[in-house]
Amino acid sequence: MREVWFGFTDYMQAMVPDLIASSGLLNEDKKLDFTYNYSLFLENSVDNFNFIENPLLSNKLSSNYYNESSFSDCFKNFKSPLVLNLNIQYLLSKFEKFTSLLSILSEKGIIFDIISLQEISCINDVSLVNIPGYHPLVYKSRTSCKGGGVGFYIRNNLKYKVLLDFSPFHERIIESLSIEVDFPTGKLIFVSLYRPPGNHPFLSNTELCKSFLESFSGLLSSLSEKDCYILTDSNIDLLSIANSNLSLEYIELLLSYGFINLITKATRLASNSSTLIDHIITNKKCSNYKSGVIVNDLSDHLLTFTCLDFKKLKKNAPLKKAFRNFSDAAIESFKSNLSNLSWENVYSCYDTDTAFLNFWDDWSTLFNLYFPVKYVALNKNYHKLNDFMSSGLLVSRKMKLELYQKFLISRNYEDESKYKNYRNLYNKVLKSAKKMYFESKLESNKNEPKKLWATLNEILNRSSSKSSIDKVSVNGKLIDDAQNMANEFNSFFSEIAENILKDIPESTAKPEVYLTDSGFNFELGQVDPSEIIEIVKSLKSKSSLDIDGLNSKLLKSVITEIAVPLSFIFNLSFDLGQVPESFKVSRTCPVFKSGNPEELTNYRPISCLPVLSKIIEKIVFKRLYSFLANNKLLYRMQFGFQPGKSTFQPILNIVNYISAALNDNKIAVATFLDFRKAFDVVNHDILLLKLNKIGVKNVNLKWFKSYLSNRKQFVMVNNVLSDLITEFNVSVPQGSILGPLLFLIYINDMYKSNLLSNFHFADDSTGLAKGSNIVEVGNFVNTELQKLGMWLRANKICVNTSKTKVMVFHLKQTSIPDFQFYFNNNDINSSPDLTRIFPIERISKMSKVPAFKMLGIYFDENLSFDYHIKQTRNKVSKSVFYLNRAKNILTGKALKSLYFALIHPHILYCLPIYSCSSKSNINSLYLLQKKCVRIISKASYNSHSQPLFSSLDILPLPDLIIQQQLLIMHSIDQKYSTVNYDGFFLKNSALTDHPYPLRNADDFFLPRVRNDFLKKFPFFCFPLLWNDFDPNIKQIESKLGFKLSVKKFLLDKYLDFRCDKLYCFSCSNT
């Protein structure tokens, strides 16, 4: 690649001899200067009043031309704010070139504080045009047609507000947007304004000019008493003032309200014309206006700029970030010295904390010696240049601009041809470089999801999700200091449980009422060094540091040297029932969920635990889960946080239950329960009681008590740690390895409290019931919810009644009368307290959102999945837009990777379930998938898709449905499914006592179905598909082998594709 670029550069240098290094010749051309032309006009004017001072001349306005080099020489590290203005002519298409320009200028010490743009056109997704270091684009665009539109980028360190009252926006007449920006010296108003050149659908040019001047006059009048800058593409040429009444009226209008135009050079230069139509207008008095025009071929309008007449805020000292350099050489030296340690001071201990502290002393001495803490200034990368912009490309870009500058000076055909030929060749090589760069990056990051998504965002010019917190509201007061925010979050997280527990009414029920002794005994046992090595090797190699400065990547490199002392400490911990206090300190990060980002309640605490503590937690998790699974102690309809289980399985069970009820001519009622911060309110005493009941006793129980008690946390906000450490004795730590399993134990007996059919995924709980009529089943549900409420109160869990919903499932032709469901927080057989009874909202087709989202899938009352497919279609459509944007940047191979990262997961999630929807719904998704394969293959919009699917090795949606349904049946047939589907998907042999083997004994049982609608549901269509499928493929035992064989079987039918239409437009064009 390097040799290619040297050759390219040499070729271009041969094409461009004696390039002009400055803009001097342009500045000397008086025909391009407004001041010169205006003076001539006044001299020739009949009404020439020389005794009247003309502000356009007395202010000695002068704005020169600059190329990038001369501009950076004059204004680098400039102490006053810089304002840029440009008609960009469709922002999305020019965005990459625009940000490259900002990057190059930024590296030369120039950062614009305000950027005003005209003709931004349509912006469907503002995240596509985010620029680091700036607020998101503030803009107004047309609604009835393309083109036009105005917007601003404002630096992040500036506060602003939009002034809609000063933003007249009449499409294709005057289009403007005003903002008020806070500067240290006061507030300034900026207006981005665009006047289209003509061709209005209803108004003549005369009427158009009149309408513009009237609106513009009103704007100037409203702004005349305020300090402001109006940045325009007015399409009014000030160089033609002698021949244009509009130009003269425009200047007179400005002067009458005390405004002057600071730009005096032509801003649009063509081979046969030069016009000054881009203006920066102000009424702010200044002794020395500094403005100018930057020569660049980004648009056919040149860039204009001005400097504000005051200094910027002084910069704070640069933030520094601590880091350790884990080089390969340092790691090898560290390992060597670790292997020489005897660890006698560890092995001689009889106390877990002392043993670990001695271990840590020896470890940290060597750790700090070989990996000392260093500090580096945080690089915010406001305008980081794209990595594919090699030095050769940068040289070539400079040549391109110099050629453009030469053409602007001469404006002859020969120079124009040289510039355009060079530009086209440069763009071609740039495009090729981008393709190679991104394909290589996607390939290298395909197994690292975080880096893959960062690459996708880079390709699509999308900003990554924001991790920093700007400000939070506490008691109505906004706080933006990171240290104070960290302390407030720490207090808030530590008080969550206390505040929720206050809202839980007292109950006569006790937790132990629902518990029985399992009769089993759990033992933590002993730890062998080889087990520790195996566990550490299985950890993901992460570079992120824990609170002690360690990461799993380093630990994996040295685990062999420390496995023996660690096994001694862990065994001591199990023998004494004592967890080292250092293992119970976590760094907690607030993770934004949704809603107002200033509200503390909209953040979830996620704990980052010491890496060494994860080893012992993994050991305990492995043993505890094996104990629970082997003795079948976990509720069989709990699907959360368990190997081999997923969200798909409870959803399939729920759909089976509902569809079977409908098949029996009954209705089904689902109660979707929502608990308030369930993980955060786990009561330790109750949890220890439950652990005891399942068989964790004596010193083993003492270990869990030690694990749960006196846990401490720091909270980190924007890389700043809170100065509080809070001890709390409630909740299980989110982000830990053991926490989720302990939570499952905590709610494991909930199903015993009621007679509903309960399905759980961690704390997402659904209770189902069925019956012949709404009154019968409704009364039953209300009674069972009251029983459930007693269990919840006994276990100190609070139900969120405003988010708990009910849905009544029925066939479309059945009408269900109203019925009031409610959650009764009174004890059974007690005197009812009406303040404890809460109505539950019923979701129906009349609801604002006619469906309920449960575990990522939308349920509606007819089980049609119409709303779910509508939402999926919306997500996929947006992703297809991104795929289409990337098709000119990426190769087909990279586009396929993009498809499987962005689009395929949306289609695939719960596909076997929602595939029972109508054919038209499925086809609407299938059409989008066809668009994708055409984009990946770079085929025409109407190309036959079947051969494209085959060549790309992608299953079309109808075949993908078949494959996914067969995979479920294969898992049941080959008995590797970890889930019991509760009476569904049984073989005929399991349902008959016939003494002789039947011919279809190995087939799955097909229930009788009432109508064709119900035949599409899993309880019938899955077994039917399996029974009729190729028996040779069904015999394959391996899951992967079966999956690949089914895929090949389904794709093979497209190998000999022939179009059978009498006339096909696509075939006639090939």
Q: Could you explain how this protein is built, in words?
A:
- With 1070 residues, this protein is α+β, with helices and mostly antiparallel strands.
- Helix content is 42%, strand content 14%.
- The protein has a seven-stranded mixed beta sheet with strand order 1-15-16-2-3-5-4.
- Helix 24 runs parallel beside helix 28 (919-937).
- The model is unreliable at 1-22 (pLDDT under 50).
Write the layout of secondary structure elements.
Blueprint: H1 2-15, H2 24-28, H3 34-44, H4 55-58, E1 63-66, H5 68-75, E2 82-87, H6 91-107, E3 114-118, E4 138-140, E5 150-154, E6 159-162, E7 169-170, E8 174-183, E9 186-194, H7 205-223, E10 228-233, H8 245-256, E11 260-261, E12 268-270, E13 273-275, E14 278-282, E15 290-294, E16 303-307, E17 320-323, H9 328-339, H10 344-347, H11 352-370, E18 374-377, H12 391-410, H13 413-444, H14 449-459, E19 472-474, E20 477-479, H15 482-501, H16 529-538, H17 552-576, E21 585-592, E22 603-608, H18 611-630, H19 648-663, E23 667-673, H20 684-694, H21 698-708, E24 712-717, E25 720-721, H22 739-746, E26 757-761, E27 764-771, H23 774-794, E28 805-809, E29 821-824, E30 837-843, E31 852-854, E32 857-859, H24 866-886, H25 892-902, H26 904-908, H27 911-914, H28 919-937, H29 945-952, H30 957-973, H31 1018-1028, H32 1031-1034, H33 1039-1051, H34 1065-1068
Parallel strand pairs: 1-15, 2-3, 9-10, 21-24, 28-30
Antiparallel strand pairs: 2-16, 3-5, 4-5, 6-8, 7-8, 8-9, 10-14, 11-14, 12-13, 15-16, 17-18, 19-20, 21-22, 23-27, 23-28, 24-25, 26-27, 29-30, 31-32
